[in-house]
From TrEMBL, chain A:
It holds the Pfam family His_kinase. The keyword Transmembrane applies. Gene3D superfamilies: Histidine kinase-like ATPase, C-terminal domain (3.30.565.10). One of its GO terms (molecular function) is phosphorelay sensor kinase activity. This is Histidine kinase. Keywords: Kinase, Membrane, Transferase, Transmembrane, Transmembrane helix. The keyword Membrane applies. InterPro entries: Bact_2-comp_sensor_kinase, HATPase_C_sf, Sig_transdc_His_kin_internal. Coiled coil: none annotated. The chain crosses the membrane at residues 41-61, 82-105, 117-141.
Automatic annotation (TrEMBL), chain B:
This is Response regulator. Coiled coil: none annotated. The keyword Phosphoprotein applies. Keywords: Phosphoprotein. The modification 4-aspartylphosphate is found at residue 53. Residues 2-116 form the Response regulatory domain. It comes from Candidatus Geothrix skivensis. It holds the Pfam family Response_reg. Residues 146-250 form the HTH LytTR-type domain. One of its GO terms (molecular function) is phosphorelay response regulator activity. The keyword Calcium does not apply.
């Protein structure tokens, strides 16, 4: 749909813009010795026709977007020129038809003859007006693109802020916190040394996550340290039910990634994997470098009897969003659930802080 | 007084055990790390009191309680949980005893005293049934799974796998993956807990998982059958047909 046809107000303003052109046309005709009646009767309907006819320029312009450089301007110019010639000719032809129709009215009998003489001028004027429409259309397209980009930018920013907020909240998972404090409460009586260790681990975890929450990008090393602190606490809570298999290639450690991307994966693996299984299982975390990309994998056993999860939970959706928000098509996010193993894989370019 | 401690975390059980040492008249008959163990231990020890964690693998605390009730076993219960705002609100509303992890000795002793009083009180003072409590704790979110005790065996039916339900007097017959399971519950009670956009009461005696429906066949003027994916025919009453139509029309709007 043409943007000028989409709203009455716009269309009205556009048609009003043609009124001075019609007056000008009538004035020129008067100066050539036409009568007032002849000038007015031809100029106004003809300009109304042009107003709608030349709207077609917008569709041509949309099909031929302007690049940032002058490259490709030749073929574009040829297209504009051809279209302008055709439209100018068509418009003059319409003037010719209109003149013959108007000649039925008394006092306008001479119009066909007058228009015949003016046909070359009308064609030239049509070409000029069409080219002006082309220019106007490009202006409108540019404006539309600008406002669209603005809207998208605002939307993306909102999304980013939202997920940041959620991420910050997620780091103080109340379940984890209160259950850990409860374990601590138990340990104070039965194993004071372990209780102190738990205290230190908890402080370490909290300090790290507070520190990370303030930053946008971190090295994978820091994310791994946070996960290590978290899992050490969960190992005290779950005892033998939580086994860890850790396989991290040191080359991946300086890789930069959005903050708190790994933590939700690890928390998910505990919540839906280990904590949901009476006998627990092994949580595996692997990081490798393959062809300039980091492949980060978190695996956990899951309850084979429970139905497979429908779609991604909020936590994983945000991880994907933030990963793709940072790296775009250069990153990949995958989850699979096969043979009782749930696996999340992140692939992203290995970029190191300069 | 005999007590059971039911929690999937060793250390969480240890805290309860430690606090119970100050009450020599309470004997810890067993400790259970999950719901299945708890059901066995209750049958074996007939405890007067259970300390029950809510979040556990396979069966949660509410489901354990529901299965115990189905057996006619109603020990006094102290719920123990780390963090569950919805459940806490339900406990408060229903005056059910609970402990928030971590808890103090005073708080523990208070909960124990309340449980003791409840244990010796008249049956009228008994807490509400577990299914009601669980529904209150879900805060309007529909049920996700149903637990059924079939002799010694406990089956957890995830609602994705529930095909249809038939009323049989005071029982409901649950049809899932070609098996039939009986559970003591009325059809209306079960219906009220299910997601009404997925499970439709198509007949006085039937609830159908909409996902299984292939088409409706009209035999005579007033007699319709629902044909399911596996070829099963279930009767559809006039009111049931009306409900299905309302749902479809609602969808197409």
């Amino acid at each position: 749909m043409h943007p000028l046809l989409a709203s009455r107000a716009r269309l009205g303003a556009y048609l009003l813009g043609w009124a001075p052109i019609a007056l000008l046309l009538a004035g020129i005709a008067r100066s050539q010795g036409w009568s007032w009646a002849e000038s007015g009767a031809l100029a106004f309907p003809l300009c109304l026709l042009a107003a709608f006819l030349f709207l077609s320029a917008w569709f041509l312009c949309r099909a031929l977007p302007l690049g940032p450089t002058l490259k490709g301007l030749g073929p574009h110019g040829a297209a504009w020129g051809t279209a302008a010639l055709l439209m100018g000719g068509l418009w003059a032809g319409l003037a010719w038809v209109l003149a013959r129709l108007l000649a039925w009215f008394p006092g306008l009998e001479a119009l066909p003859h007058r228009v015949n003489i003016a046909l070359p001028v009308l064609t030239g004027l049509g070409i000029l007006l069409y080219l002006a429409s082309v220019a106007l259309s490009y202006l409108m397209l540019a404006q539309d693109r600008a406002s669209e980009a603005e809207r998208k930018g605002a939307e993306l920013q909102l999304l980013a802020q939202e997920s940041e907020l959620k991420a910050l909240r997620a780091q103080l998972n109340p379940h984890f916190l209160f259950n850990s404090l409860n374990s601590l409460s138990a340990l104070t009586a039965v194993d004071p040394a372990r209780a102190r260790e738990m205290c230190l681990l908890l402080s370490d975890f909290l300090r790290r996550s507070l520190g990370l929450g303030e930053r946008r990008l971190v090295a994978l090393r820091e994310e791994l340290d946070l996960a290590r602190a978290y899992l050490a606490i969960e190992q005290i809570r779950f005892g033998k039910r939580l086994q860890l298999a850790w396989a991290v290639d040191p080359a991946t450690e300086p890789a930069l990634l959005p903050t708190l991307l790994l933590q939700p994966l690890v928390e998910n693996a505990i919540k839906h994997g280990i904590a949901a299984l009476p006998e627990g299982g092994t949580l595996s975390l692997a990081a490798d470098v393959v062809e300039g990309h980091v492949i980060l994998r978190v695996e956990n056993p899951m309850d084979a009897e429970a139905p497979a999860p429908q779609g991604l939970g909020l936590g994983l959706r945000q991880v994907r969003q933030r990963l793709l928000g940072r790296f775009g098509s250069r990153a990949r996010f995958e989850t699979t659930a096969l043979d009782g193993i749930h696996r999340v894989t992140l692939v992203f370019p290995l970029e190191i802080e300069s | 007084m005999k007590a059971l401690i039911i929690d999937d975390e060793d250390l969480a059980r240890a805290v309860v055990r430690e606090h119970l040492q100050a009450h020599p008249d309470v004997e810890v008959a067993a400790e259970c790390a999950n719901g299945f163990e708890a059901l066995k231990a209750v049958a074996l020890h007939e405890p007067d009191l259970i300390f029950l964690d809510i979040q556990m693998p396979k069966l949660d605390g509410f489901e354990v309680l529901e299965l115990l009730e189905a057996e006619g076993k109603r020990p006094a219960v102290v719920f123990v949980t780390a963090y569950d705002q919805h459940a806490l609100r339900a406990f408060e509303a229903q005056a059910v005893d609970y402990l928030l992890k971590p808890f103090s000795k005073e708080r523990f002793d208070g909960a124990l005293a309340k449980a003791r009083a409840l244990h010796t009180a008249q049956p009228a003072a008994l807490p509400p049934p577990a299914s009601e409590l669980a529904a209150a704790a879900r805060q309007g979110r529909p049920l996700e799974r149903i637990v059924v005790k079939d002799g010694p065996k406990v089956t957890v039916v995830h609602l994705d796998r529930l095909d249809w339900v038939q009323a049989q007097d005071d029982y409901v017959l649950l049809r899932t993956e070609g098996k039939s399971l009986l559970k003591q519950q009325t059809l209306a009670h079960l219906e009220s807990q299910l997601d009404s956009s997925r499970f439709i009461r198509i007949h006085r005696s039937y609830i159908l998982n909409l996902d299984r429906l292939v088409r409706i066949e009209q035999d005579s003027k007033e007699h319709r059958d629902a044909i399911l994916r596996d070829g099963t025919r279930l009767p559809v009453s006039r009111a049931g047909y009306q409900r299905l139509r309302e749902l479809w029309e609602g969808d197409s709007l």
